[in-house]
């Protein structure tokens, strides 16, 4: 069995091997570009042994930012043939080319942590200061273009935006998306790298790509898409991550001497109410919501625990969440499965329908710890470290056997291992 020391060495080796000069790919072949929330987590990993490189990861990510503030979920820094859909299919005329949707906005929070814990104070101060206006522009975009009516919940237009692509939470709203009969033909590349039983179904892929054509026809006009896009949901992953990111943006504004406090505080007030409106008393969980039918998407998923990370939950709700998670723990060997193991949709090996993801564990554990549920937090942390030991630094893990699944030598899993051992918590 590998030791902690040898695993840390291996994790650092993975980040170096996935470094493409200023940005880190999630894994070779399957994901050969820079992804938004992966870049955030990866920066936390770099922070443990090369602070300059950590800040560079975020700077490079922002090269993809649009003039309207949107930070795209993929930046195609250079051409690669092993991934689909690439820049040609997205059709975004920019340099570097990018996708046209976003992902969970973890960056403001991570910039705060990096600033608070940096050894090189001067560098951290300078980098945080230069990133701040770009973060503000990004968060303003969310408010202006994805919640123009100030409901406190952001409208998400694609399952890929949530980071949890094929979560069963999206089954119903995705079923409403009629596959475009004129969908240009395509060849999936993901199933050439990973066993198809661990990847999304074909029916989902056709809908993912149909949505791309909808955006192109609307010239990526967000406000128009808010009424014409056939997929519109409120996602706990986006709303909770954004809420915390706004708390940290407010902190950064104060700490670095920028204004905007009142503006950000207004967003926070709205999103706290929005997130808490997703609570389901009977289930003892938060549910995502379909914004077309206005109905809750009644399936427990790992994101259902994230209001703890957001910090919006009451202590009573935190307690209920703890009980709910104990129930899940009695069904699996390793926490936290991405779908409630008692759900009929639970598939322990298929991507976001059951497997454990180290990055989500990091956020959930932090939430429990901050609410004083130390034991659960520590259990999640230990399970994650154990998974890296038994399953390697894989993309995700089987919650019953610990088997590593999906891509191998995966950057964000390696980064979480380093951050959890380096920073503790
Ligand atoms: C998959 C994941 C997404 C991640 C990306 C790159 O699409 O669902 O969350 O950002 O891979 O790792």
Summarize the structure in words.
The chain is mainly alpha-helical. The chain has helices at residues 4-18, 36-47, 51-61, 87-90, 107-117, 121-146, 171-175, 190-193, 202-217, 222-228, 236-256, 261-276, 307-310, 315-329, 358-370, 374-391, 411-422; strands at 34-35, 74-75, 233-234, 279-280, 285-286, 288-290, 296-297, 396-397, 404-405. A hairpin with a 5-residue loop joins strand 6 and strand 7. Helix 2 (36-47) packs antiparallel against helix 3, helix 2 (36-47) packs parallel to helix 17 and helix 16 (374-391) crosses helix 17. The longest helix has 26 residues, at 121-146. The two termini are 24 Å apart. Residues 26, 31, 35, 37-38, 163, 165 line the site of alpha-D-glucopyranose (GLC).
Gist of the model:
The protein has about 425 residues and is mostly helical. The protein is built from 17 helices and nine strands.
Largest sheet: 3 strands, antiparallel
Low-confidence stretches: none
Structural class: mainly alpha
Taking all Cα atoms into account, the compactness measure Rg is 20 Å
Q: What is the topology, as strand order, of the major beta sheet?
A: 3-6-7
| Average pLDDT rating | 97
What is the H-and-E element order?
Answer: HEHHEHHHHHHHEHHEEEEHHHHEEH
Name the shape in a single word: globular
Q: Which percent range describes the beta-strand content?
A: under 5%
Q: How many separate helices?
A: 17
């Amino acid at each position: 069995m590998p030791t902690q020391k040898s695993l840390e060495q291996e994790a650092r080796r993975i980040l170096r091997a996935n470094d493409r000069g200023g940005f880190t790919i999630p894994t070779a072949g399957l994901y050969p570009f820079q992804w938004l929330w992966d870049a955030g987590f990866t920066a936390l990993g770099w922070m443990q042994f090369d602070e300059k490189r950590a800040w560079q990861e975020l700077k490079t990510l922002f090269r993809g930012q649009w003039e309207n503030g949107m930070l795209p979920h993929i930046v195609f820094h250079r051409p690669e043939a092993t991934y689909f859909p690439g820049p040609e299919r997205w059709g975004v005329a920019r340099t570097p080319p990018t996708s046209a949707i976003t992902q969970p906005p973890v960056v403001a929070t991570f910039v705060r942590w990096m600033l608070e814990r940096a050894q090189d104070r001067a560098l951290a101060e300078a980098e945080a200061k230069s990133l701040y206006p770009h973060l503000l522009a990004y968060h303003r975009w969310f408010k202006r273009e994805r919640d123009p009516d100030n409901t406190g919940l952001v409208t998400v237009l694609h399952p890929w935006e949530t980071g949890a692509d094929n979560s069963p939470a999206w089954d119903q709203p995705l079923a409403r998306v009629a596959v475009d009969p004129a969908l240009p033909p395509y060849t999936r590349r993901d199933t050439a790298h990973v066993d198809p039983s661990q990847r999304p179904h074909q029916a989902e892929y056709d809908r993912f790509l149909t949505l791309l054509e909808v955006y192109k026809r609307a010239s990526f006009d967000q406000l128009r898409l808010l009424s014409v896009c056939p997929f519109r949901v409120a996602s706990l992953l986006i709303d909770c991550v954004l809420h915390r990111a706004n708390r940290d943006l407010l902190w950064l504004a104060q700490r670095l001497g920028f204004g905007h406090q009142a503006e950000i505080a207004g967003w926070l007030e709205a999103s706290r109410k929005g997130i808490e409106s997703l609570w389901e008393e009977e289930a003892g969980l938060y549910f995502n919501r379909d914004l077309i039918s206005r109905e809750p998407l009644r399936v427990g998923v790992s994101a259902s625990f994230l209001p703890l990370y957001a910090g919006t939950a009451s202590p009573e709700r935190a307690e209920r969440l703890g009980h709910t998670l104990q129930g899940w723990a009695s069904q699996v060997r390793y926490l936290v499965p991405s779908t409630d193991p008692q759900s009929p949709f639970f598939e322990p090996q298929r991507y976001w329908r059951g497997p454990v993801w180290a990055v989500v564990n990091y956020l959930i554990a932090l939430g429990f710890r901050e609410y004083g549920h130390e034991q659960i937090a520590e259990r999640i942390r230990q399970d994650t470290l154990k998974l890296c030991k038994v399953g390697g630094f894989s993309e995700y893990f089987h919650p019953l056997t610990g088997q590593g699944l999906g891509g191998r030598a995966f950057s964000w899993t390696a980064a979480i291992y380093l951050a959890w051992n380096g920073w503790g918590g």
